[in-house]
Amino acid sequence: MASIPKSKPLYLLRSLLLSYVLSGLLLLLLSFLLYKMKLSRDQIQAGVYIIYVLSCFFGGFLSGKQLKTRRFLWGGLSGLLYFGILLLLSLLLGKGIQSGLSRLLLSLGLCAGSGVIGGMLS
User: What is the residue extent of each domain of the chain?
Assistant: First the structure.
């Protein structure tokens, strides 16, 4: 039985899926900490940014490991897609962009940057 060759988009999709799984687990941990420790709004926002960084780093690392060439590019693309999908879902669910342009750009930079670093270190 011949193995089916995997394509670059499938590797990227797989790394994105695993990034979102990691995000979900970390968000569960953050919600538990919120419940137990009565975290402030700033602490919650910092936790969300940390989750973005860890998830995009992980996705970029996986993309780079799987794709072997131009790792920084695939890692950055993984981070950008992660951010883009979050933004799209937020808009589709009617939440809009409530945090303002500066926080939106910060989130974009964190996602893309940590994806690039993850890809480079893979």
Answer: 18-121
